[in-house]
Design brief:
Elements (H helix, E strand, L loop, with lengths): L2 H24 L19 E5 L2 E8 L2 E2 L5 E2 L2 E7 L3 E10 L9 E8 L4 E9 L17 E7 L1 H4 L1 H6 L3 E6 L7 H18 L11 H12 L8 H4 L4 H7 L10 H7 L3 H5 L7 H6 L4
Antiparallel strand pairs: 1-2, 2-5, 3-4, 6-7, 6-10, 7-8, 8-9
Length: about 280
Amino acid sequence: MDYLTVSAVILIISVITLLLWVWSRIRHLRPSNDLSWVNENKYTAFAEIKGDDVVLKNVRNFNWRTTKDYDESWIEKKFKISDCTKIWLVLEYFYPTRRPIAHTLLSFEFRDGERLSCSIEIRREPGEKFSPIKGLLREFEIMYVWATEEDVIGVRSRCRKSETHLFEAVILGEGNECRMLESYLKRTNDLHKNPEFYNSIFNNCTTNIASHVNDVYPGRIPRALGVILPGLSPKLLSKNNLVKLRGGGIKQEMKINQIEERARSWDGTSDFGEMIRNVDS
């Protein structure tokens, strides 16, 4: 064998050995809901569902002044699944200089104008910080954070140095907004009882959203790099008619729907959801 072939074989053996060593160190780990958590991840939400009626417990409703200065509040929300009329997608570039890395979350709008958000994210213990590498090593549990828009969208667009976009989703099929909401609630209850590990590739925010969408409308979201790396998702969103576009293509839409400036002008008492959707504000 020539030098390059030998080097390639050695490299492959080294990588396999490293992967086996890593797996031997983490395979015994088991996810848990019974650990010490940071305040914003203290409780897991769960839904009491009786037919069409839902009582959603442990909805986060923090008043964020900064990421470290806030008033803690947990509430419950009552609604009917059949009253869901729209779904909104938030795309947050929390590392603006690392565009492939981003966070996505959904917000559900109801007939009476109320909105309720759900962010699929890691459940952090004190001292933990998100890392894509650690997210591959069973370092974090995954959780569905149900919250008011003032909380979960507000902290991203008002208090962090994130670039935050708000899209209105295109929902194909009558009643699929409601089926999406129901799918989310069932998964929320599953995780409340049976915790799982977060995985940066296979079990992250966007892979779960895609799974919910395809559960309701099979094949709606194809396998794509933009699902694993949400920062690359705008082309996927545009190509597959997943979000509404105003004024042309996806680049123009992202200029229109960037919300930090509007969010930071919120007075704390008016309707936050209307504020961030009012492009003239």
